[in-house]
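#struct-queue
[09:14] JT: dropping the first one here, sequence first, then the structure tokens:
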Amino acid sequence: MPDAAPLLSIRNLVTRFRSVERGKWITAVDDVSITLAPGEMVGLVGESGCGKSTLGRSIVGLEQPQSGSVIYDGVDLSSLSGRMLRDKRRAIQYVFQDPYASLNDRQTIGETIAEALIIIGVADKTVQARRIQTLLDQVGLPASLAERYPRELSGGQRQRVAIARSLAVEPRVLICDEPVSALDLSIRAQVMNLFLKLHKELGVACLFIAHDLALVRQATSRTYVMYLGKIIEEGRSDELYARPSHPYTQALLASIPSADPRVEAHRPPPSIFGDIPSPTNPPSGCRFRTRCPQATEICASAPPQAVRLTPTHSARCVIAGELYRTKAGADLAQAVPA
């Protein structure tokens, strides 16, 4: 847990969808609790379909949770309505994955950003123009782009516009849903550096949802690992990446490619086998057990409880403590000269 009091607390959130199979439901987010401190950048990682985006959309109200709480600045948003809810929600903005789908091609860039300004009461055209110029400058775009349409921009430029639109209402929290995954590899680093710059300059807290574990490792102070709707490991990023203590987290980190071809040539085969189980009928006990190489009978009996490994690191696995000690012993052995 971060030292500062949470700015955003998600408590026991559950979000379900009706399945195409009659009478069945998909629990995309299942009893999830996470926190975000003021000015903190936190990572949320996991395979496609694990519920990361649904969690992000539930936080900002794009999906309606069945139970649980979204608490912003000490206020449970489910207790608010009307203008009070809008005022609070304004502080939590969303940056979508696809910059080609998140902007209206019938509006100029200036009109797109002005729409956000009008919502917060900035009606004066001169003030709008000045604010739009400032926002475009903040995201590294020339003011002349205000007169152009999204279809005239590259993917990287469009994503910068989407970020500028999110910043227009002066949020304190950004939910960033795979914001660089749809971009060319050469552009990803530029946009990621922009996020880091804005995070530092504006003090905006970010929940950074991503597939790229190496990116999350470099950018975030803490990381949550999600699997089939559940948070299965969480902790300070440096601790979690150094000593992953859930078999799923270990497998994810082992899959990160290396720039060294000699390391890649000796990469062990994947330790995860099989496909993600159906969310309409998840496995009993530990949801990862059907794909886990270290699963035993006890893993099917009941959902695993969180094992506290350090004050800032925990994992939901019956052998988490053993895995942590094994990794710690291996690190110690490498550090001691033969």
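[09:21] JT: and here's the second one, same format:
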Amino acid sequence: MQLKVYLSGEIHTDWREEIAHGVRDAGLDVSLSGPVTDHAASDDCGVAILGAEDNKFWHDRKGALLNSIRTRKGIEDADVVVVRFGDEYKQWNAAFDAGYAAALGKSLIILHGPHHAHALKEVDAAAQAVAETPAQVVDLLRYVLTGALPA
């Protein structure tokens, strides 16, 4: 069995790379995808392609709409959606992605530290698992694919 996993959420740390390395090291048949993680490219894609905007609202909206094409496709095609909530910034887009995935009936893994447990209790309640580390996500994927518990 192969799993298609979409990695959504926080873009300021290397959690995606940790999961990618863990999946590769474990030899799991997992295909990973996610949003554009170059923050400047993600913010400016709309105006870079469709033309400048004097108003920051329209600048941001063009980028958000363009990015939503990739996000929708990734979530819709995924078997499992992992949504990471980081420590430093509020990730409203991550909460939206989690809700969208849940509404589509996607298997959902939420990833955050213990200090977000209260704030994300409703998001966590929609998930099949809530992990605190990328290594736990890899262990979850290993179990789903092979039935093997961590060593």
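[09:30] RK: nice, looked through the second one.
[09:31] RK: The radius of gyration is 16 Å.
[09:31] JT: good to know. The CA atoms of residues 53 and 59 lie 5 Å apart.
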